[in-house]
Amino acid sequence: MRNIIYKITPLILLFLTVSAFGQRQLDNFYYYKGEKVFLTINTKTISISFEGENSINSFKSLNNNLVKTTEIIEDNARATVIAIDDKATSRKAIKSYYMEISMDKNMSIIDYYKEIESYKNTPNILMASPAYITKSGGELGLSNNFYVKLKNKDDVDILYKKAKEMNVEILGHDKYMPLWFTLSVTTKNKLNSIQLANIFYETGWFESTEPAFMYHNIETSNDTYFNNQWSLNNTGQNGGTAGIDINMQQAWGITTGDPSIKTAVYDHGLEMNHPDLQANVYGTGFDANNGTTPATVRGNHGTACAGIIGAVKDNNLGISGVAPTSKLISISINLRTSDTPSQLASGFNWAWQNGADVISNSWGGYAPSSIIDNAITNTLNNGRGGKGCVIVFAAGNENNTNIRYPGSSNPDLLVVGAMSPCAERKNPSSCDGENRWGSCYGTQLDIVAPGVKMPTTDRQGGNGYSTTDYTQTFNGTSSACPVVAGVAALILSVNPNLTFSEVNTIIEQSAQKVGTYTYSNTGGRPNGTWNNQMGYGLVDAYQAVLLAQSCQDDLTINQNVLSGQTDIQEAKNTITATNVIFSGGTAAYDAGTSIHLKTGFSAKSGSSFRAYIEGCSGKRIEEESTSQQEVITYENISLENDALEVLEVVKVHPNPTKGVVTINSTKQITSWVLNDYMGRYAEKSKLKSNSSYKDQLNMNHLPAGLYVLKITLDNGDTVYKNIVKN
Fold it and tell me: pTM surpassing 0.85?
C-alpha cells in the first residue's frame, strides 16, 4: 500500500504544478458540442463581477483618464433559477453585478494578468477575469457564472460533490430545462468561470458545460431614416427596380393575418402603447434579463422590428405591417453588453410555453452556446402543441460568409439575408448607396427580404431613432428578418395546422429568383434552386399564402406571372388558366382531373411552365410526378408560338402532336434534347452526321403532357420549343 501512495503522490504534485502554469491556457477556449472553441484574449478589457449594492459607487469610482468603466449591470442569475438547497434559497436575495474595465491601449499578456490580479484584492469582488474577442471580431465579457448540464437527473449528487471540491456555489437549475444548472465562482476561488467550466467538462461526468459569457452588441440593425415602403410595393422608390417586392398587395387579397396567430418579437422589447401597434399587442410579454413579466423597453430596435411584422393597416397612421391583423408578443433582452446564454435561452422557452407561433430574432452573437441550442430545440419540438414554433433569424451585417449564431446553429431555423431595392444582395456597392455594410451570406442562408431604407414604427416622441413616432430608413438584416416572420404569420393564418418545417418549406419553395444571380440545384437544398448570396431568393408573400391554403375544388387563374415570380397552384378538380407567364417567370399548375388553358393563356419565350394531374397532394415544383393520366385538355390555347421562335429559324410540326414531330431549321442543327414538364430527360438527338437541317422526334412512347425541346444550332444559338403531346 505504501508503494502505491508513493507512486501516486508525485503525479498529484505534477498535476498541481502544471495547473499553476496552465491556467492561462485553460481560459482561452471553452467546449461546445465536444469541441474546443478558441478565443483571443482582449488585453484592453477586464471582466469584473462583484457583490452587494453598497459596492456600486466604489466600482464606479475606478473610472479615470486611463481606465474607462462600462455601465454596471445587475446579474439576475440567482433570481431566475430554481434553488434546490437551503443555502442557495437563503442567498436568493443577494445581488451581484457585472461591469468591464477598459484601458486606453493593449497590454502585454504578462502585464494584463498582473492587472487582473490587482483587481482581485478589491473589496466585495467575486471575480476578475479576461475579456475576449472571437474569430469573427465579436467582443465577449465573462461573468462569474457558468453552466453545467447533467446527463440525467440522478447525477445531481455528482454535481454537488464536484462543486464542493472546486469551491463553487450551485445557484439552482433552469426553470424550463431542469438538467441545466448555474454555478457561481466565489471570492475564495483562484480559477475563473471559463476555467472551471472546462474542468467540469473534462471530468466526463456531465453532458455539457459552458461559461456565462456577456454578449456584446448582438442586434443586427445598421442605421435609420428615409421613407416609403418599397418592400411591400416597389414602384422604383430610392432608385430601385419596380416590381422587386414581396407581392404584398396580392397576398392581402387572400389574408391580412389572423388574431389567433402570434409572433414573438424577441428584441429590445416593443413599445406596447404605440398607436400603430397597440391594437395588435397580445399579453404583457416577458423580460428575459430579469426572468419576469411584463416585458420592458430596453432600446429602439424592438419597436422598429415589430412595426414591420404587425403594424395596424388602414388606420390612417404611419405604416402597415406584413401581417397587420395578427398579434405581437414582446420579449425583451438587452442586446448590448450584458446578455448571458441562460437569459437568451429563457426567452425561447417562455415563448413556446406562452403561445407564440412565430419568433422573430433580429440579433445574433458570436460564441455558440449549448444552453441556447437546447432552448431552441425545445421550441421547435414543443411549440404550438408539438407542431413547433417557426424561428426566424437575421443573417448579420458584416458582408461576409459568417452567418451569425444562433442562426448558423440549426438547419431548422430560417436565416434571412437583406436585399437592396434593385434585387441585389445588400452589399457596399448595391444601388441603395449605403456603402458601410452588407448582408452576410453563404451556405446557411435560406432566403432574402428587403433590408434597407425600411419605414417602420419608432418609439414615441424623442425616445427613438427619430423625433417622430416613425423612422424612415431602418435597415440591416434586422429589418429583413421581421419581413419573413410576418410572411410566416400569414401562412399560419390560412393554415394553422402546418408544422414549422412545412412553413419553412413553403417560404423556400415559393421564393422569387430575382437579380442576375445563377440559382442552381444544390446538395442539402431540396426546396428548389439556390444561390450562395440570395439563398432560395426573395420571399414571396402571395405565393407562400397560395401554397399554404387548403386546396380548392376548382380554380381559375388570371394573375399574370412576371419575370422572377413563381406561381404554384393546386386544385382538387379543375384549373382554368387565362393568364400570361412572361419571360423569366415560372408556373406549375396541378389539378385532380383536368387543366384548361383558355384564350388569353400564353407562356412567353424564356418562361417555365409545367402542368400535371395529381391534385391536392402538397406537390411542389421540384418534386416528380408518377401520374400517367391525361395531363392537359386544350380549348383555344395560345402558346404564343411566334414568341417561341427565333426569327422562325426552327419549326416543329405538328404541334400539338400524337406521335412523330418533324424539326425543320434554316440553320444546321447540331443536337437536340427533349425534357418533360418536370425538366426530366425524355429523348435526345441521334443525328447520323455532325449536323442536319431536318430531323424527326418520335414521341409515341411518351405520356401525354407538355414538353420542352432544346435545339442547338451550329452557330451556337439555342432555340427552345414547347411541344404538346396529346
Answer: no
